[in-house]
Amino acid sequence: AGDQNLFSSLYPTLSQQLPREPMEWRRSYGRAPKMIHLESNFVQFKEELLPKEGNKALLTFPFLHIYWTECCDTEVYKTAVKDDITKWQNVLKAHSSVDWLIVVVESDAKKKNKTNILPRTSIVDKIRNDFCNKQSDRCVVLSDPLKDSSRSQESWNAFLTKLRTLLLMSFTKNLGKFEDDMRTLREKRTEPGWSFCEYFMVQEELAFVFEMLQQFEDALVQYDELDALFSQYVVNFGAGGKCL
């Protein structure tokens, strides 16, 4: 969300550098941590893409929402940007989407052309005060990202680390909820009207997720469980029971 032209100018570098460094992925249930590379698909913010109540999909809606701005003018912030961020956050709250990040891109060249910048209160401070409350880490500064300098590279690296961390946190949380919903659905398999085909699509999507992360052993476990579940229904049907 936010300044689409700004994001478009940074996207080539972002998409190239984001998966370059691996992240340690820690999960619950005593599972051993694994190193994974994160590749993300960025899409323009639209309310219709947000998950709806009862949506059990894992791959069809965005996990982390990012607002981009390079505003350094206090009047522009007051009259336009602040209102735009407010509307964006209100839509997220309406859909219970709590994983977000605001990126403020600062450019020395752009600052020099502005005269109405308050010396003691930067736009970043204003955004943090207006929107972040106790989550000050949800607003980050990206300094001259297209400039070839050590300061720019340090800023990029810090931003990429933050982005990878938030992406992995959000993904892990959504994955855990998806697995819980899947288990609840599986426990209802003895109830009338339960559909193996519907359940198959849910657990197959989980297998797809593990394949995307190159966690092939975890993906194979999902298919083994589906095979065992289907085999049990075949046995039940042969014994005169119900095969749902």
List strands and helices in order, with pairings:
Layout (H helix, E strand, L loop, with lengths): L3 H14 L5 E3 L8 E3 L28 E5 L4 H21 L5 E7 L1 H5 L10 H10 L6 E5 L6 H38 L8 H17 L3 H23 L6
Tell me what the structure shows.
It is built from seven helices and five strands, in the order αβββαβααβααα. With 244 residues, the protein is mainly α. It has two domains: 4-173, no CATH class; 189-239. Strand 1 and strand 2 form a beta hairpin. Helix 2 (74-94) packs parallel to helix 4. This is Trafficking protein particle complex subunit 10.
Radius of gyration, rounded?
A: 23 Å
Assign an overall shape: elongated
Terminal Cα span: 44 Å
Q: Tell me the β content.
A: 5-15%
* Number of discrete domains: 2
By DSSP (H or I, 4+ residues per run), the number of helices equals 7
Pick out the low-confidence regions: none
Average pLDDT rating: 84
| Topology as a string of helices (H) and strands (E) | HEEEHEHHEHHH
- Write down how many β-strands occur, each being a DSSP E stretch of 2 or more residues: 5
Give the strand order of the largest sheet, numbering strands 1, 2, ... along the chain.
3-4-5
Helix content: 40-55%
* Major β-sheet annotation: 3 strands, parallel
GO biological process, one term: early endosome to Golgi transport
Pfam families: TRAPPC10_1st (PF23036)
InterPro entries: TRAPPC10/Trs130 (IPR045126), TRAPPC10/Trs130_N (IPR056913)
Organism: Mesitornis unicolor (brown roatelo)
